[in-house]
Design the sequence.
């Protein structure tokens, strides 16, 4: 009898433990190098980053008008939102649980969002992404490519301030 109770308790603990571990892995912010097509950096998510990301969502001012909006060079930053954010504007009405900031090398950053049916939306922004990029470790928008990929080289980046 005691053995059955212990086995049941062990089973319950295992079932409860795995989702918690999986959820913690999803909280990481991932920075992807588009040209290399791989994640080059992960960053722990925190409240400051969440606040800046929600600010961006509130300042959407248009849609990206390009046949292929994802550039060949630059970075994509996947930011999980916790808690989720209900976004309603003239283009989308959905619960957003993840924001992807696309930072092309030679254009202004923009957002990629997915709705509940997994449809993709590319949005332009009314405000700058510089404060969010700074929180993520980018020295400036112009130097973001060198700043993120510096972990793969010994290049020293000087800040021009």
Sequence:
């Amino acid at each position: 009898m005691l053995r059955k109770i212990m086995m049941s308790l062990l089973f319950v603990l295992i079932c409860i433990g795995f989702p918690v571990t999986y959820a913690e892995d999803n909280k990481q912010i991932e920075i992807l190098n588009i040209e290399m097509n791989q994640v080059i950096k992960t960053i722990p998510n925190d409240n400051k980053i969440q606040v800046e990301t929600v600010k961006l969502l509130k300042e959407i001012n248009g849609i990206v008008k390009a046949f292929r909006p994802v550039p060949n060079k630059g970075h994509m930053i996947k930011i999980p939102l916790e808690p989720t954010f209900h976004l309603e504007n003239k283009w989308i009405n959905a619960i957003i649980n993840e924001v992807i900031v696309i930072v092309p090398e030679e254009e202004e950053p923009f957002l990629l969002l997915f709705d509940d049916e997994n449809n993709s939306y590319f949005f332009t922004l009314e405000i700058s992404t510089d404060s969010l990029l700074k929180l993520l470790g980018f020295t400036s928008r112009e130097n973001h490519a060198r700043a993120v990929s510096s972990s793969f080289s010994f290049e020293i980046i000087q800040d021009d301030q």
User: Anything to note?
Assistant: The radius of gyration is 19 Å. Residues 16 and 22 are 11 Å apart (CA to CA). Residues 2-26 form the longest helix (25 residues). The chain has one domain: 28-152.
